[in-house]
Amino acid sequence: MQEAITTARRRRPFTILGMVLALITLGAFLFVATRGTGSATPSGVSGNTGNRSEVVAKVDIPARATITSDMLTVSKVTAAAPQSFASVSDIAGKTEHFPLIDIKAGQPLLANELVTSTTSVPGSGPQFLDIPQGFVALTIPTSEETGVAGYIQPGDYIGIIAVVDKAGVTTSKTVFNNVHVIRVGTATTTIAPGRTGPTATVSSGTGSSLTVVMNECDAEYVTWFLAAATLRYTLENYQDYNQGVVNNPQTDPACAIDKATGVTNADVAKRFGSDVVP
Question: Distance between the two ends of the chain, CA-based, in angstroms?
């Protein structure tokens, strides 16, 4: 009996140590289980609450669409996604934004999924042109001699000079300035592999045409000069963009596309002078 008591006393420290280890293991298990059940809802998911602002789509936004403020809302999250926005005005403010991909309602809008120019939006076909509201695109012929030796590039502003021979007298006059060039040559589509499948990039290179934008009424005058005169172009310095208002298509009064009534010799003489009418 005495021997059994002695053996039990010798084993007592190991028994206590085992109990302590068991309690530590149980406590660690409960701590991890409690942390797991209390995790936050992922960013951008409806119902998530927190103290960080994150702009998410209020409705489905298709790729290449112009993002407006009514498409967006601000969600409170515990941790904002990388490259997300905190304010609707950051996206739908003075600068227009266009999504590269379809964005579903409730998803956050990320900077690496948006561009500020439609020419940067890849698609399955030719991209649409950057035509401001109230303007139209018009293609005019060019060459090395008439088009500044090919130095005119998309985004430049040019002047248009009309050269007219009338009764042995040659007249040269600038009829338009600050004409915005949005394409040079014919658009070409290049297909390249992407992470989510093939993507198409539309570009333009040197060619025999310039695509410009102006209102419908000014486009009729340019078309008249194309038929009745010889045109040459000047390339403006960037510091002169939008300087002056005379014959500047960027500041001409609005002309709705259904209000253009046509151009005659009398109209050209009244606006630009009779010396440019053959």
Answer: 135
